[in-house]
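Example 9 (inverse folding). The structure is encoded as follows.
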């Protein structure tokens, strides 16, 4: 079986890209922008997007750049557990591949990825769309996830795998997002 992302098997999981992390997390603006690009790409391709927020009363809501890409009426999964996959109401809409992005690489992203892999889901992590408060913890999280079987990718790589070919209207819309 191919380990490329396939549109009929893939959901996007955006973990905890929340306002309280903006000043504390390394490269936050770039990560939020990359997450928003992924959301827009998944909207172009009409693929499922799952968004979580860790304790929003204390950490704030999902940042505006991601919320705008989602649409203001999109559901958000509120949680207090670190693994988003353990939150009440979590589902991947029948998909067996997950593209994961968000905050923090070594905590919520890491625990979610490990849980999904243990459940038999093929997980891809967009390296340019995850971070932590320090680059060391970001890298540690990525190393742990990759060691457990996650496929480390990028926003551009993931979106172009999902499109699969040039020359289509979807490709042109995705290309405009990643330029």
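The amino acid assigned to each position is listed next.
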């Amino acid at each position: 079986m191919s380990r490329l992302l396939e549109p009929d098997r893939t959901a996007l999981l955006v973990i905890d890209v929340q306002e309280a992390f903006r000043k504390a997390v390394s490269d936050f603006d770039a990560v939020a922008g990359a997450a928003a690009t992924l959301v827009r790409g998944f909207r172009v391709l009409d693929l499922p997007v799952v968004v979580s927020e860790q304790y929003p009363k204390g950490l704030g809501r999902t940042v505006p750049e991601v919320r705008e890409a989602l649409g203001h009426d999109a559901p958000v999964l509120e949680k207090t557990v670190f693994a988003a996959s353990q939150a009440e109401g979590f589902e991947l809409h029948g998909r067996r591949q997950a593209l994961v992005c968000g905050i923090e690489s070594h905590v919520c992203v890491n625990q979610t990825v490990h849980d999904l892999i243990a459940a038999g889901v093929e997980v891809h992590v967009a390296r340019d769309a995850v971070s932590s408060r320090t680059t060391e913890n970001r890298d540690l999280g990525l190393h742990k996830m990759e060691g457990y079987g996650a496929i480390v990718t990028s926003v551009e790589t993931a979106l172009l795998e999902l499109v699969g070919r040039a020359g289509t209207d979807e490709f042109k819309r995705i290309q405009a997002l990643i330029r």
